[in-house]
Amino acid sequence: MAQSNASWDDCMQQAATSDIGMRRTSNQDSYAVCPASDLQNWYERGHLFLVADGMGAHAGGELASKLAADGIPHAYYSHRDKSPPDAILSAITETNAQINQRGEASIDYHNMGTTGSVLLLLPQGAVIAHVGDSRVYRLRRDQLEQLTFDHSLVWEMRATGRFSKDVEMASMVPKNVITRSLGPNAHVQVDLEGPLPIESGDTFLLCTDGLTGKVEDEELGALLASLDPEEAVQVLVDLANLRGGPDNITAIVVKVTGHQMTTQVADRASPLAFEPGRRKTFHASQWVLPGLCFLASALMFALQKYFQGALAAGGAILAVLFVLILNWGGTSNGHGRTLQTRGQLGKGPYTSLKCPPSATFATRMEGMAKDLKEAAVEANYSLDLAEFEEFCHLGRESAATKDFADSIRQYTRGISHVMQQLRQRGSQSNDDVTADPF
Could you tell me where the beta strands, DSSP code E, fall in 11-59? Predict the structure, then answer.
């Protein structure tokens, strides 16, 4: 996995977390966060973020997701001769083959698989590569968009139009049956989306279905709009766990905060302009003709009998050199890369929902905070609730002034404060907060 020595704090905030949940004995989720190591790598490869949700008996799912989280970034950065979309496509295809080979070689890992959702933030926009039902969202102002198509039985059947008149049938189809994953088969079909223009203030969320199975899109949007990435990833995990936490939960939140990462108008005209290409070099054979012309010209000039021939040979030398110089220059973007243009990839976004921080949602968060406190008191947990009460007081004050984003922020801080104490107790007992009070 690529490591970054550069700081992007002035233009990007990021946070990631992965939680085992309340019911599982192991965490089969994995993730990768690979910001560009320097400005040159940003121009050529961008920032890479990935989530993977493994599946398989024994330790198969855990191994499959780890192979994806380690292998895809490594392979992506090794394909320097390809454009970012082609490189990530090759990386996922190669990693799929590796996971498949490991599964075929051992009965313990047979048919192991994993989802894989990758977000590339490039100078030309956001590019997504996707297999499975782990999701990538973008929040722009108050609009939450799902940029990936769930490769699940429900979504695939809905895409055929079968659910348009039969709501009851739709509710009977299991939501966790996926139709595409990395590993079970030697070959895999990968969805590519983008490039999607990036604006300052855009917030991206990558997550596994352990989150989206328990937290609705409307809630995701309001929380992402109200919280910074560090708080957001923790609150999202806390909410999923408060609602039972039946699965592993992984979330990566990336917020663009500076103009340095926004998509420029020139980049939109040539969406993938930084197409990797080899620097043009002179092959040895290219010097043969001008060399012969030079020798002939020198010989004729020395004999002083074929002056016109010497001039012609000299002219040929200049003409060939001129062509070579043009070929050397090529069409460059100033970073040693050849300019190429590709069209738009994919059909996203697939859902779009307006979900601003609202009085209704602030009230809902207040209710959740109160329910959590009551559940803790009834269970006779010894908790320090003074700070919790202060957060709730600040939440009510902000709601009274119609600052609903801050109200939501204060209530979620109170919830996370209590959940942190319960997690500490959970390290001593596995029986804490396993009910689903919400």
Answer: 12-19, 29-34, 47-55
Tokens of 249: 């939960």
**Single-letter residue type at 367:** G
Helices marked H in 254-385 — which ranges?
265-269, 288-303, 307-329, 359-378
Using an 8 Å Cβ cutoff, are 26 and 77 in contact?
A: no
- Dist. CA 277–CA 279, nearest whole Å: 6
Peptide bond into 349 cis (omega under 30): yes
Beta-bridged to residue 288, according to DSSP, are none
pLDDT for 158 beyond 50:
yes
Beta bridge partner(s), residue 12:
256
What's the number of CA atoms in the CB half-sphere (13 Å) around residue 48? 31
What is the residue whose two structure tokens read 């990968």?
190
Residue 4 · residue 35 · CB < 8 Å:
yes
In three-state secondary structure terms, 255 is strand
**Rounded CA separation 275/270 (Å):** 10
- Looking at residue 264, what DSSP letter applies? P
**pTM for this one?**
0.81
SS3 79: coil
pLDDT in tens, 245-271: 999 999 999 999 999 899 874 354 444
pLDDT at position 330? 37
- List beta partners, residue 47: 121
For 225-250, the pLDDT digits (tens) are 999 999 999 999 999 999 999 999 99
DSSP letters spanning 131-170 = ESS-EEEEEETTEEEE-S---BHHHHHHHTTTTSS-HHHH
